[in-house]
């Protein structure tokens, strides 16, 4: 909104100081181009967001206060011609990268960053929610579910319980199978500084009492991740967001159904769910195996089955023409 409102016109005044009637379709096109070209380089995605937000705001305010709008001018943000661009797919971190980063951070005294990477990868919580304190110690093996972890997705309001272990009956008795042993080993290195799981203690200053632990800021954690990945030797594409994308991709590589994957990720729509899973070689290999198995099953049919299939196909091709009927006088 500020990108639009703070844009300076040729007369030297702000767009935000103009009346609503002054914004015409031509003005909307010009504002889109100004934001897209930018003062320090092109930013087409930012311009698209501005147009979409203004389009919606215009509809909402027009419904509530129609007297301030020109009846002869429709919503000027509808139909703004925006350039076609190829959207880049966000990178996805692998399991090996996530745990190399986690243990590297722990060795360098950054257990909070280690836990954040593992949580976003294994339990698919959004990085901003992890850092904001939405994952608390009572959510991890708490009284209600001692063998599960609760993940809150603040963006959608969804609460998902992820099982951590299962008791399986065997010939020797009952065996406990842990689903996330590596992740729980990382969490075991996390100091308990408060109710939220991931907090950082401010540095001590002389003889003053230590300040209480606080959540990480998103920018502060980004700087830690950048420094840690450089020291550990990971690529520049490794981020907490890439960890979550990697976990989503692993769901598809495991060949889960869409319903099973969404039960773990808490996505409400199939479109948003599929947008995270990357088309990796592992996914292509699984699909190729199934296709090859289908071919082998059909090639391996008996001669009687093949003759029956050919007969059905021939019958479908050579359908006899119907004899035209004479109409009664």
Offer a quick outline of the entry.
This protein has helices at residues 2-5, 25-37, 44-64, 95-107, 111-122, 127-131, 181-187, 218-232, 240-253, 258-265, 270-274, 281-299, 303-317; strands at 148-153, 158-163, 165-170, 173-178. The chain is mainly alpha-helical and 329 residues long. The protein has a two-stranded antiparallel sheet with strand order 1-2. Strands 3-4 form a two-stranded antiparallel ribbon.
List the helices and strands and how they pair.
Layout: H1 2-5, H2 25-37, H3 44-64, H4 95-107, H5 111-122, H6 127-131, E1 148-153, E2 158-163, E3 165-170, E4 173-178, H7 181-187, H8 218-232, H9 240-253, H10 258-265, H11 270-274, H12 281-299, H13 303-317
Antiparallel strand pairs: 1-2, 3-4
Structure write-up:
Helices cover 46% and strands 7% of the residues. The longest helix is centred in the N-terminal third of the chain and has 21 residues, at 44-64. It has two domains: 2-68, no CATH class; 95-203 and 212-281, Intergrase catalytic core (hpI Integrase, Chain A), CATH 1.10.443. The chain has 13 helices and four strands. Helix 2 (25-37) runs antiparallel to helix 3 (44-64). It has 329 residues and is mainly alpha-helical.
């Amino acid at each position: 909104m500020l990108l639009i409102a703070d844009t300076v016109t040729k007369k030297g005044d702000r767009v935000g100081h103009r009346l609503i009637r002054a914004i015409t379709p031509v003005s909307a096109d010009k504002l889109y181009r100004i934001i897209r070209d930018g003062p320090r380089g092109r930013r087409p995605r930012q311009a698209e967001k501005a147009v979409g937000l203004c389009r919606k705001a215009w509809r909402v305010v027009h419904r509530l206060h129609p007297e301030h709008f020109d009846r002869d001018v429709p919503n000027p943000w509808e139909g703004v011609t925006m350039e076609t661009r190829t959207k880049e797919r966000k990178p996805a971190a692998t399991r090996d990268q996530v745990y190399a980063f986690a243990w590297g951070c722990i060795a360098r005294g950054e257990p909070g960053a280690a836990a954040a990477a593992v949580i976003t990868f294994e339990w698919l919580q959004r990085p901003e929610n992890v850092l904001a304190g939405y994952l608390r110690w009572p959510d991890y093996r708490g009284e209600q579910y001692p063998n599960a972890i609760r993940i809150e997705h603040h963006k959608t309001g969804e609460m998902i319980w992820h099982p951590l272990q299962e008791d399986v009956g065997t010939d020797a008795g009952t065996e406990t199978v842990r689903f996330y042993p590596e992740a729980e080993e990382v969490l075991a290195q996390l100091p308990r500084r408060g109710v939220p799981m991931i907090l950082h203690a401010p540095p001590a200053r002389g003889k003053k009492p230590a300040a209480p632990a606080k959540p990480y800021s998103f920018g502060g954690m980004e700087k830690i991740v950048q420094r840690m990945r450089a020291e550990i030797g990971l690529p520049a594409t490794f981020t907490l967001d890439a960890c979550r994308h990697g976990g989503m991709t692993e769901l598809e590589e495991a060949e889960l159904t869409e319903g099973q994957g969404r039960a773990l990720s808490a996505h409400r729509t199939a479109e948003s769910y599929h947008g995270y899973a990357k088309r990796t070689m592992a996914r292509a290999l699984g699909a190729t195996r199934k296709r090859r198995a289908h071919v082998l099953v059909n090639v391996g049919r008996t001669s009687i089955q093949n003759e029956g299939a050919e007969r059905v196909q021939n019958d479908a091709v050579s359908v006899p023409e119907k004899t035209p009927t004479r109409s009664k006088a």
